[in-house]
Design a protein that fits this description.
Keywords: Carbohydrate metabolism, Cytoplasm, Hydrolase, Magnesium, Metal-binding. The protein is an alpha+beta fold and 335 residues long. The protein has helices spanning 2-5, 13-22, 30-52, 74-89, 151-154, 223-234, 245-255, 274-287, 318-334; strands spanning 63-64, 70-71, 92-97, 104-105, 113-121, 132-140, 161-169, 173-178, 183-189, 194-199, 210-212, 238-239, 258-261, 291-293, 313-316. The N and C termini lie far apart (56 Å). Bound molecules: 6-O-phosphono-alpha-D-fructofuranose (P6P). 6-O-phosphono-alpha-D-fructofuranose is lined by residues 121-122, 124, 214, 243-245, 248, 271.
């Protein structure tokens, strides 16, 4: 009955996960447990981030802090915490992380799932107290259980994600995720150590008036990108660029808008990573009614060829992504 589905604001994440699992008669609970493992690591990383200001985080790796402890960069700490939570949780056989060149085998060869993760994106923003985020993507392994996960398990198209989400460590800490049945946002109450449902059934506006792109690279934008940026200015849109992907994405998701990281001279394939940035946010934005492409192709249809491959990213309100793609198509016709 529909009202059973409409869980009230304030429902805890645990209860939400349990009730949603009931909607999948064949669910055996592993994905639910995996989501709980990620939420646990997010709580721990949140505490580390909040403490970092107090223990004189030098930021650079290998500095001593006031306690004389070996100071680790927060993105190294976050990587350790998420991988440990996934290893201890037992549901994941293999992890790919922005922080590690190669696949990480957890030893859980019975694990059904593979996780791609950016443990702490935008960590250069930490020292200046700008919001930062964790981005994750979950796939079902294709190889048989009982062995290590394979490269093919890790290089699956975005359309094969079973779940994806992000944590934004900002003025409040939120977990936003989807398992393919809509997008829900949970706000963390540190004093209780719980995530509470605060943004049920997030849908992103079909259009908007915010555009997010680093115009410092404008001299190397392709004509189509330059023309779209000019279109945004002619429409009197607002430029909003925090330089922290999760923060820029989250704001645009809720308010409507477009985030673009195009090919530039410094980043000929764009700067952002397909497996643990683009695809995860693409799954979320599509589930929220938005769109994500590389400028010419649905992002989640891209066939990955390497763990850390980059991709141009056009993501947000459907009508704005369509408009950007129109300008890029005109550019190609003009060539
Ligand atoms: P630029 C942060 O380093 C990051 O990976 C994303 O979080 C952010 O959106 C982007 O890079 C900013 O890159 O080249 O504009 O400084």
């Amino acid at each position: 009955n529909p009202d059973r589905l409409a869980l009230p604001v304030g429902t805890t994440l645990d209860r939400f996960i349990m009730r949603k699992q009931e909607d999948f008669p064949y669910a055996t609970g592993e994905l639910s447990q995996l989501l709980r493992d990620i939420a646990l690591a997010a709580k721990i990383v949140n505490r580390e981030i909040n403490r970092s200001g107090l223990i004189d985080v030098a930021g650079a790796y290998g500095q001593q802090n006031v306690q004389g402890e070996e100071q680790q960069k927060l993105d190294v700490i976050a990587n350790i915490r998420f991988i440990r939570a996934l290893r201890n949780g037992g549901e994941v056989c293999t992890v790919i992380s922005e922080e590690d060149e190669d696949m990480i085998q957890t030893g859980n060869n019975q694990g059904k799932y593979v996780v791609a993760i950016d443990p702490l994106d935008g960590s250069s923003n930490i020292d200046v107290n700008v919001s930062i985020g964790t981005i994750f993507s979950i796939y079902r392994r294709q190889s048989g259980i009982g062995q290590e996960g394979t490269l093919a398990d890790c290089l699956q198209k975005g359309i094969h994600q079973v779940a994806a989400g992000y944590v934004i460590y900002g003025s409040s800490t939120m977990l936003v995720y989807t398992t393919g049945a809509g997008v829900n946002g949970f706000t963390y109450e540190a004093s209780l150590g719980e995530f509470f449902l605060s943004h049920p059934n997030i849908t992103t506006p079909k259009t908007g008036s915010l555009y997010s792109i680093n115009e410092g690279s404008a001299n190397s934008f392709s004509p189509g990108v330059s023309d779209f940026v000019q279109y945004c200015k002619d429409q009197n849109f607002s430029a909003r660029y925090i330089g922290s992907l999760v923060a820029d994405f989250h704001r645009n998701l809720l308010k409507g808008g477009i985030y673009i990281y195009p090919a530039t001279a410094k980043a000929p394939n764009g700067k952002l990573r397909l497996m643990y940035e683009g695809n995860a946010l693409a799954f979320i934005v599509e589930q929220a009614g938005g769109k994500a492409s590389n400028g010419t192709k649905r992002l989640m249809e891209i066939e990955p060829t390497s763990l850390h491959e980059r991709c141009p990213l056009y993501i947000g309100s459907t009508e704005l992504v369509n408009k950007a793609e129109e300008f890029l198509a005109k550019e190609r016709q003009a060539v």
